[in-house]
Amino acid sequence: MKNKVLKFELLLDNLVLQSITDFDVKIDINKWSKKEILGHLIDSAINNLQRFTEIQYSEKPYKIRPYNQDALVKYNDYQNKNNQDLFDLWLHLNRHILEIIKNQTDKTLEYQLILPNGTLTNLQFLIEDYIDHLFYHVSQINKAWI
Fold first, then answer.
1. Contact (Cβ atoms closer than 8 angstroms) between residue 112 and residue 58
2. Is 22 within a domain?
3. pLDDT per residue as tens digits for the range 54-89
4. What average pLDDT does the segment 9-31 reach?
5. Model pTM greater than 0.85?
6. Cβ(143)–Cβ(34) under 8 Å?
7. Is 59 inside any structural domain?
8. Band (23; pLDDT cuts 50, 70, 90)
9. Structural domain span for residue 67
10. Of 65, 66, 64, nearest to 122 (Cα)?
11. Which residue, of 25, 83, 97, 100, has the fewest CB within 10 Å?
12. In sequence order, what DSSP letters do the residues of 5-50 get, joined into one string?
């Protein structure tokens, strides 16, 4: 996990919004633009920030509540938001998440949780899955970010 966290930290320290091309372009009405993918990552950060925090004090196993990613992208209207504002929000949320991740101990990483599909796992899995998900979508936005 340490390597993933370090890679996450390096990403946050080295991102540049201006390097993204075709940020607003929608190639298909049913597909997200790069800007909407960033919006999806904002929603993911908000939901996971809540999860990473609530598991600290909630009854275990902590139950992960799913969210409707398509509806959130649509109703947050990310396509029509200011590019820099979206980028700054995403960056600040993830810097906060990084600090929460760094504060975890071996004990807290083992906190049990139940995924929406009923699978029992732990906080370490959830954190690693969050980082993997983030990198997957960042690579969709721009290979130069990685």
1. no
2. no
3. 999 999 999 999 999 999 999 999 999 999 899 999
4. 80
5. yes
6. no
7. yes
8. confident
9. 2-14+32-110+123-145
10. 64
11. 25
12. HHHHHHHHHH--GGG-SSTT--SSTTS--HHHHHHHHHHHHHHHHH
